[in-house]
Write a structure and sequence with these properties.
- By secondary structure, the chain is mainly α.
- Helix content is 58%, strand content 5%.
- The chain has a 4-stranded mixed beta sheet.
- Helix 6 packs antiparallel against helix 9.
- The longest helix has 20 residues.
- It is elongated.
- The protein starts with 7 loop residues before the first helix and ends in a 6-residue tail after the last helix.
Length: 322
């Protein structure tokens, strides 16, 4: 490929286009450089097939995309290259040099959806039950309640930090949620403004009661005003806890609890979904608990469930053992 030379006519077209995106579209220098690399690849592929850039057809582009995929380039990488080529041919069309864009309906190969990262049951229970004997009891109580809600109710971190102690018209208007200990449920507003109720298990209820008993004991917490006065989870200074703070506290808790992999809030949501599905096999119920609008979003957890079954088979079935 590198030995293929670019014709002077194609080189001139490329230079004109790059000048166009640099001057008229005012793209950043780094972006212009990347466009140039993509065009160079296009010109060399076209040169290898003895076709000028203005004569490239749809079947050429499809074959080149397939070649890149077979060569190991990711679907995302191919999509970025095709996007650069597509813009170049849009410009050629505006110059009256081509009658149709050969890249217009070419799409990159779809990437397999990565499996969500989830803890195994033992690690999740170990994290939830961990108590740092050297830490402030106030922090222990707060962090334990956060873990129980993330893992026990499958909340997103934004839903967690948006929780209030009690329902109110202000919370409803602001899209915040709240806890209802008497009904043993937590009300949240998820993506797309969709509200749902998630159950609070026995351990979550106990952790929340312990946290609420000490929540206002620190001077900063007792002095909380406005929105923070209603917030379920607050920091030492009495402000509503941020998602970044939850990430940091979970990561620290996981390390202290002896877990091998770093823990983040969404990992606990994934663990919740995976473990409920393993125990119940009820995909529709998991969809409702997670607040997914589309069952296809929830189906990714069936792949985690199958991995769990496959490991159990490998460990237990006589014909699987070596």
């Amino acid at each position: 490929m590198d030995a293929v030379s670019i014709s002077p006519a194609d080189a001139a077209l490329m230079a004109r286009y790059l000048e166009h995106v640099r001057v008229e579209k005012r793209l950043a220098a780094r972006t212009v450089t990347l466009y140039g690399l993509d065009l160079d690849k296009l010109a060399r592929l076209a040169g290898a097939d003895r076709v000028a850039l203005a004569q490239v057809q749809n079947h050429h582009v499809r074959r080149w995309a397939a070649q890149m995929h077979a060569g190991g380039r990711s679907g995302r990488g191919i999509a970025l290259i095709l996007s650069g080529w597509r813009g170049f041919y849009v410009w050629l069309g505006r110059q009256g040099l081509i009658s149709a864009n050969p890249v217009q309906d070419v799409r990159a190969p779809r990437q397999p959806r990565p499996l969500p990262k989830a803890l195994n049951v033992d690690d999740a229970v170990q994290l939830a039950g961990y108590v740092d004997q050297a830490a402030d009891p106030w922090l222990n109580a707060r962090d334990a309640a956060m873990v129980e809600l993330l893992y026990g109710s499958g909340l997103r971190v934004g839903e967690l930090t948006g929780l209030d102690i009690a329902p109110s018209d202000g919370a409803l208007r602001a899209g915040r949620g709240w806890i209802d200990l008497q009904a043993a449920e937590v009300q949240v507003q998820g993506k797309g403004g969709k509200r749902r109720a998630a159950p609070l298990g026995r351990q979550a209820l106990a952790a929340l009661r312990r946290w609420l008993a000490v929540r206002g004991q620190l001077p900063g917490a007792a002095a909380a005003r406005g929105d923070a006065a209603q917030a379920l989870f607050i920091g030492r200074r009495g402000t509503r806890l941020t998602a970044q703070s939850v990430w940091q506290r979970l990561r620290q808790r996981g390390l202290h609890a002896g877990l091998a992999q770093p823990v983040h809030p969404h990992m606990l949501r994934h663990s919740f979904a995976s473990h409920v599905l393993q125990s119940s096999g009820d995909l529709r119920a998991v969809q409702e608990l997670l607040g997914h609008a589309n069952i296809g979003t929830t189906q990714v957890y069936t792949r985690l469930d199958f991995q769990h079954l496959a490991r159990a088979y490998d460990a237990a079935h006589p014909r699987a053992r070596r």
